[in-house]
Amino acid sequence: MSSASVTETCKLGRNERNGVTIDVMDSPGLFDTKKTHEEVAIDVVQAVACMHPGPTAVLYVISLANRYTQEENGVYERLKSLLDKHVTEYMIVIFTRGSDLRQNKKTIEDFLSRAPSELRKVLEECGDRYVVFENFADDKDSQVDRLLQMVRTLSAAHGGQPYMCPKYGEVGEKMNKEVDKRMKKAEKRELQRKKYVQDLKMMMKQAQEQAETLRTELEKQAKKRDEEIKMSSMGREDKLTTIMEAMQKHELIYEASELKQLLYEMEKEKSKELNDAEQLSKGRIEVFEKQTKENYEKRIAEAIEESKKREANFEGEMKKLKDSIANRGCVIS
After folding, report:
1. Is 220 helix (H, G, I), strand (E, B) or coil?
2. Fold of the CATH domain 11-167
3. Coiled-coil segments, which residues (predicted)?
């Protein structure tokens, strides 16, 4: 938590370092003069409740660029009044702008020796736990490692128990139960969505199998018709050829010429019948496959759209839930 009014709403960040998952809740600036005491209290309630059962450590950020003021000390006292006095047992002071000290050829000890009594009291109540961060340091990882080691030591000193504010513990517990309830509902909806998509895939597979069966059947029918047409055509050709040869023997040249034309037209008709049969089979298969694909894609799109709507509704419900719980459970006297 910082005295600067930088963060307007609670923001939860998550990272992993050396195999350990670290959650950091950046809370609203307690020095925000635009907010009332009650509004800041609501923000703090949400920050504490969202990290239920409680944070491992509370980081109080102070800049070394300026002298520690009475207003900043008021922020510290305000924090204790919003939570409780035991919060200092979990607090670590973070001094930023450590590079300023190095540029002025001073150490943190030099700074603290001239610090106001209010700041020395803060450090005393926090068990003299502090870490200096240099904004322009080449090795920033070592600074983070020092802080994490201090957090681990602090956690061990408390037996692994996080900070639990008695004022907001019940609010956090209720919120945690409600979140679990909503998550179970969301998981159930997700399972239903997956089952729906799985059913659609099964239907698509069955439709493809039916299309393949239809294709095979139509190809068989087309092949059978082709053979029948060929056999019929061959029979007619043989018969007409015999007649034409007989007529040629009797020098019926004119009639033979007409029969040649008839044979030519019959060949054209046979080719047309084969082509029509092939186009009919191909057209029926293409129409069936197109309809099946369009139906499948439509159902998949509907399932995805429905899933997005449910996720959006769930996020909206969770936001309303946090706001309503915070408003009911954070009356600060």
Report:
1. helix
2. Rossmann fold (3.40.50)
3. 197-228, 286-324
